[in-house]
Amino acid sequence: MLYMPASNARAMAKARSLDCDAVCLDLEDAVAPEAKADARAALVAEAQAGGFGHRRLIARINGLATPWGSADLAALAAAPVEAVLAPKVDDAADVQALSAAMDAAGFDAAVALWVMIETPRAVLALERIADCAATTRLAGMVLGLNDLAKDSGMAQLPGRAAFVPVLTMAVLAARANGLVVLDGVCNAIDDEGRLEAECVQARDSGFDGKTLIHPAQIAVCNRVFAPGNADIAEAEAIVAAFANPANAGKGALRVNGKMAELLHLAQAQRLLARAAAIAAR
């Protein structure tokens, strides 16, 4: 998911041609206070103009406690976005309030709520926040490690060792509740090696994807998160083995020298579905 400032008309127009899976038009950090109203109007106009193709369209609002949050929601109710991304939630009560505010603003029932996990309180409340998926619009969580680093004093060093517990708990909370979960941004725009390392770490940690701050980061992210040829071949072999009538009723098979159980079949099917979706795009 690529962040694009809603105050930059050229950037929003360019997003329609970029090879990202989602575009997050941003009204929060990327927009100066004096530009908030104009950016809000521009975001709604761009969303209504359409043309984003396969790209999911997400809008990041300002917090409800700010002077702009409520106006953001009121305006976005008329915009064809897939989700509203809310910053700096601290606990389940914030999620419930945001979902209720979207209802009151008149959002279509299909529009989801995504939340940023970027405060110490939010990390400590991850399980309770994710549990809100059962009773609210909550459908996704996005890590905001820059704000978390600022508030906690944790250093964002290569390898992100200090943040590994946060990465793991965010994924587990998301998986327990059927949520999309995206890793935070890599600030080193010109350091392709560091970006690749963070993408590999996020992929191997179970994240659905990564948030990006520059179009130059898209190709690396796509390459790392896409299934490789060897992964696809292994998945196809597992699916074929279980589909073989000679193996009917078996719960465990030997496939290319490895044990494959039904859980591996499910994983293989998910991987092949992801590869097919990428190929179709």
Description:
The protein is α/β, with parallel strands linked by helices and 281 residues long. It folds into two domains: 2-225, Alpha-Beta Barrel (TIM Barrel), CATH 3.20.20.60; 229-280, no CATH class. The chain contains twelve helices and ten strands. The strands form two sheets. The protein has an eight-stranded parallel sheet. It has a two-stranded antiparallel ribbon with strand order 9-10. Strand 1 (2-5), helix 1 (9-14) and strand 2 form a beta-alpha-beta unit. Helix 9 runs parallel beside helix 10 and helix 11 (229-243) packs across helix 12 (262-280). It is globular, with a radius of gyration of 20 Å. The two termini are 15 Å apart. The model has no long low-confidence stretch (mean pLDDT 96).
The CATH topology name of the largest domain reads TIM Barrel
| Radius of gyration based on Cα positions | 20 Å
CATH class of the largest domain: Alpha Beta
How much helicity do the residues have? 40-55%
**Can you tell me the residue ranges where pLDDT is under 50 for at least 5 consecutive residues?**
none
Q: Helix/strand-derived class?
A: alpha/beta
How many H/I helices? 12
* CATH homology-level superfamily of the largest domain: Phosphoenolpyruvate-binding domains
Please tell me what the overall shape is.
globular
When the domains are counted, the total is 2
Report strand order across the widest sheet: 1-2-3-4-5-6-7-8
